[in-house]
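User: Here's a structure from my thesis project, written as structure tokens. My advisor, Dr. K., wants to see whether a designed sequence matches the one we expressed. Can you design one independently, without my sequence as a hint?
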């Protein structure tokens, strides 16, 4: 990456702090909003608490770093020196000749079932979309282990809608391709995480995600360089929001249901 491009991304990540969540909780309802639940089996390990360096522990590390997305569809960048709760992430969605760069903010942490008698041990986090995003809503990622059987799952729970202010061009594009690409993404993340956790746990990941010397973390860490990136149009925050909800520093962790 050239210094100029790196500086542009540094500014873009820093500027996310000035953006608000782009919807109000009171707007979410059965009409116009979609709920998706995606569950992927990652593997099994010995029953009981999560095994050190087992599938649950490895998946938790990758999920904490947001280091599991399919790079041909979505990459991301965020500041290393930020706490997980409240972290702003610049998503880099790829479709054809365009890169859609949009912000999300982590507003909840899931940490359940530490008690030995709990059926499931679950850890994860959730983000909400910021102004300029093509969608409005929330995604919660969880890594879950069933203590009795040792089953390890990766879950993605999504409550979303296409942004009502997409406009004619983006609106048509979403109707033609958006839902297809969205479901493709949620299918791919399960396979990606399973491959990196179970099938090839040592390939493409020697250490936890680290910054590239510019204070930014680029994920997924195993993403290959793309020649198309030099010619793709970069479209920052493609939707103009009329209003939004101010959520900068969450008041407290909010537990999520299993």
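Assistant: Designed independently from the structure alone:
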């Amino acid at each position: 990456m050239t210094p100029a491009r790196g500086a542009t991304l540094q500014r873009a990540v820093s500027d996310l702090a000035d953006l608000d969540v782009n919807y109000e909780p009171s707007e979410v309802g059965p009409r116009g909003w979609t709920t998706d639940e995606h569950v992927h089996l990652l593997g099994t390990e010995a029953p009981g608490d999560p095994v050190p360096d087992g599938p649950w522990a490895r998946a938790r590390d990758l999920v904490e770093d947001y280091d599991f997305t399919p790079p041909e569809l979505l990459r991301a960048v965020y500041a290393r020196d930020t706490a997980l709760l409240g972290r702003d992430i610049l998503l880099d969605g790829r479709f054809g000749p365009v890169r859609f760069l949009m912000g999300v903010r982590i507003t909840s942490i899931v940490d359940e079932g530490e008690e030995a008698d709990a059926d499931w041990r679950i850890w994860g986090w959730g983000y909400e979309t910021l102004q300029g995003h093509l969608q409005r809503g929330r995604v919660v990622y969880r890594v879950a282990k069933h203590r009795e059987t040792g089953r390890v799952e990766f879950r993605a729970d999504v409550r979303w809608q296409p942004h009502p202010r997409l406009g004619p061009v983006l609106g048509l594009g979403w109707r033609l391709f958006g839902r297809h690409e969205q479901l493709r993404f949620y299918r791919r993340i399960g396979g990606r995480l399973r491959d990196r956790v179970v099938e090839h746990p040592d390939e493409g990941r020697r250490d936890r995600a680290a910054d590239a010397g510019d204070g930014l973390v680029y994920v997924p860490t195993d993403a290959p360089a793309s020649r198309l990136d030099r010619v793709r149009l970069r479209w920052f925050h493609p939707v103009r929001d009329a209003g939004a909800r101010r959520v900068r520093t969450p008041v407290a962790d909010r537990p999520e249901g299993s």
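When you compare it with your expressed construct, this may help: Confidence is low (pLDDT under 50) at residues 248-258.
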